[in-house]
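In this supplementary section we document a worked example of the pipeline. Step one takes a protein sequence of length 649 as its only input; no multiple sequence alignment statistics are reported here. Step two produces a three-dimensional model, which step three serialises into structure tokens for compact storage. The input and output of this example are shown verbatim.
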Amino acid sequence: MPATPLRSTLRTLCAAAIIGLPTGSWAATDDAMRDALNAARQQQWQHIDERAIEGHILSGYVTYHRLRNQLPNVAASQVLQFIEQHADSPLSEWMRGQAIAKYGHAGRYGDLLTVADGEPAGTARQCYYYMALIDRAPEESRRAGLALWRVGSSQPDACDPLFNRLRADGTIDATAIWERKMLAWQAGESRLSNYLGGLLSSEWQTALDTVDAVSNNTRAITSAPTCLGPECRATAAFYQAAMQRLTRDDTPTAFAAWQQLSPRLNLTSLERQVIDEELAFYALVRNVPGTLGWVDSVLPSLESERVLELRVRRALADRQWTEVMHWIAEMPSSQQESSRWQYWLGRANEQLGNQEAAQARYQQAAQDRSFYGFAAAEKIGQPYRLNHERHHFDEATREDIARLPAVQRTQALLRIGEEGLANSEWLHAVREASPYQARALADYAAHQQWHARLVQTTIAGEMWDALEWRFPPAYRDDFLAWGHQTGADPYLLMAITRRESAYNPVALSPAGARGLMQLMPGTAAQVSRQLGLNDPGPYGVLEPELNIRLGSTYLRDKLERYQGNRLAATAAYNAGPGRVDQWLGSNSMESFDLFVESIPFRETRDYVQAVLSYRVIFESLANGGSSEGVSLLNDSEQSVRYDRALVQR
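The serialised model returned by step three reads:
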């Protein structure tokens, strides 16, 4: 349940008692700290009451902004002192990153290396770092600099000193310039491509003219010279880029062109594989007629997991069970040993009458806590392997956790409305903690009812088997109530919410979906009208109970559309009913597993599998951690034919 104002007040009073502050003075210093932090961000130092925030657990945040503002005119020793003083906080790495950027921009490379701790994150900082290393570790710097150069998009201005140095010493030569030009051309970055072309001498003019000709008419690739640039140094990069462009634009034409070109070109096997892999991938994705034999001929040499996956899915769609087994066997062991492919090896053996082999494959797949692991367990009549890790911590441990400086900073940041900084503090503490302490932090988060933060804690601490923390009973009463009222499976509602937002009530997707169940504003408005409610608007839809009510109703409508079939309704929740109708109309699958593999969007395939397996976990946890009586799908969902007849007219 969401914290009520009374519960929040009591929690605040308890926290004050633990920390040992009088509650009145604590509130006063928090107000001063909030004002000071806001002033520090705006560099309004005269508005900071230093005495009021002296000794506050968050005073380091003001120091951070002050020191950051003084960079690069600060001694590296002073930066290191701050980093060491705040080693248990994300402030330390933030300051390190800021110092690298500011010292690098100022050309103070000695100071940069003093504060750096290996390669930093971020392209600009990496460019500064390797420029600083160019004289101390030239080989490492040149190797890293070339990697930063070889991208098809513009790099930050911070990279210019490094690139200029590498061009001057010949590390970035004309071939490297051409290769980057081809990457930019391939990516559609015309300005960068034109700029790079201008750096090349007249020796490259034929190659440049060929690029212009093929840009205007991609089919002209078949009449392009087979040797481009000085000593043919432009040939491989040109044909790789040109074929990639043509393959994505017009795969049948690209296939025909490659049949003409391939015998004429003097390319290495690795250079050919780049073209073959891309062409094979799109030929399978787009089901290009007449290409399957060629795909099968090149596939064993490609070592491409994504193309092998597509080839197996093609064999499944055609019910070619011997081919399924053959192509799974071609996968690297790390790929084929997954529960997904072990399950399909079981299905293939079962279809071919090899019952003993099928049983063994199902047995292996059933060890996994996943969609296919659960499906395999049902095949052999075994209970699901939840592999549930249980933990117990007492109140004394929770009080010890509450006294940790990182936890006190998290609580203080929450009190002053700094949710983002609080999350950073908390997750930094989890990542730096021992396994035992990380789990004690998770227990603390659970008892604070920090549902979204708890899920992130299990991810940061890699607590994959701590199911009660990974799938907490967040908003449980609302899901049960609205599930009962709408007729939607409440455990499916919980699973969708866990996948959609991980319980963040203010989650906002890049596409604009909002809240716990990630409703688009238009969908929320439509469902609200259906229920006789006012349009909640973009912010009203963030209210958890309303979001759950609207999401439950929307899912109920999808369930009705597909005659109660939760698999199809879940796919529609992610991809939209129009697409699911189309998939059901274009394919006829006699079983649920074949339908899942026939879904053309990887995102939706993964989504359906995750939600349905999460649903099993939620119901099992509600049963005290037992999966007895819980099923991945009901009998109808397992036996129905997945075709157009499933859509309610």
